[in-house]
Design a protein that fits this description.
The protein is about 55% helix and about 20% strand. The protein contains ten helices and twelve strands. Strands 1-3-2-5-4 form a five-stranded mixed sheet, sandwiched between helices. Strands 7-9-10-12-11 form a five-stranded mixed sheet. A hairpin with a 5-residue loop joins strand 2 and strand 3 (about 80-85). Helix 3 (about 130-200) packs antiparallel against helix 4 (about 205-230) and helix 5 (about 240-250) packs across helix 7 (about 280-295). The longest helix has about 70 residues, at about 130-200. It is elongated and about 130 Å long. The chain starts with a helix and ends with a helix. About 25% of the residues are buried.
Amino acid sequence: MHELRTRMQTLVFGLAALFAVLILALANGFAYWQAAQTVQENLNGASRLFDERGYDREFDILSSLPVCTVLLDHSGEVTAVIARDPDMDEEDLVRAVSSALHPASDFLYTANYVSRREGNAITIVETGEIACQLRTVLRGSLALGTGLLVLLWFGTKRLIQVMTDPIAESIEKQKQFVADASHELKTPLSVILASAEAMEQDPQPRWLRAIVTESEQMNRLITSLLDLSRSERLKDKALVNLTETVEQAALPFESLLYERHLGLVLDLEPRLEIMGVREDLARLTAILLDNASCHADPDTDVTVTLKQAKDRIMLEVTDVGEAIPAGEEKRIFDRFYRADDSRSRHQGRYGLGLAIAKNITEGHGAAIQASSRSGTTTFRVWFEPLSEKQKIRSGRNRNR
């Protein structure tokens, strides 16, 4: 998982960094293009002015950048200054002419002057201020880019961690599930092997009974594992009368509860319907009732309630007896969870029932919750009710 996270972080960071660098490069490129356009506009403006007025007299040039124009003789010496910006003093003029006669580069990040020669006239634009502005933008972009890359690195690290945590948790749960299943299968297999070896030396019915008992436990475990696997599969949902489903699933438990000196109380609101899988909803009800019957005190009632609660439908199974250990209200839905391991194993219970119930609940877009207060344990399942369209369809089906 660590290697996967590193690869994903590198990939996401690389793409994000490339995008950020591209944006900053485009911003600097656009700034440079604007600066170059400004310089060319000033040079072109001076050329148009001389085309209109000629080169025979001196005048001032008003432009966005300091500009001057000088005339040269055949030997390259300055013969006249025919135009200059009012902001240019003699010292600026000398530096501009010297730069034009010995040009180094027109790269605006470093050039202080840019010139254009037309015949014996040279027009010079002072670009020192533009170069300073471009360098400031570049330095700001580099600083912003560095800070952005640092933020991207830690941001992508956190993002990848959040994205992969569920995957890592799922992988860890799968490993734990395999380990727990192997452990549960190992115990009866060990007993079967030991009993078989004992039968070879001393054939007695008790060894055979031990083999049969452990084989039955293995069969129950494998059946529970298959039920758990089936409960995770996506199934097509149909309109289900939840009231009838819960009632039909609960009534067979009446005799079982009677044997355990328990009563069954049903409080079901009529004609509550949801979209779901009837068999799974019946299985959910049976799991919750079976769980309640195993933990309820004798001479108490197990109560099943189904009602409309605000904007949801609530199924509630309540018993009075052994409480859920404090802080274990969520863990009881984990696979192979057992509060009393020795007692559960003796009863042939493997801690898969509530895990199956949770899978069924989540498969129906519902939520399940357990709580224990003052010796009363309650399991609640909240279902989403039918939408308006589904209600209309349900009414049509009922009228047929």
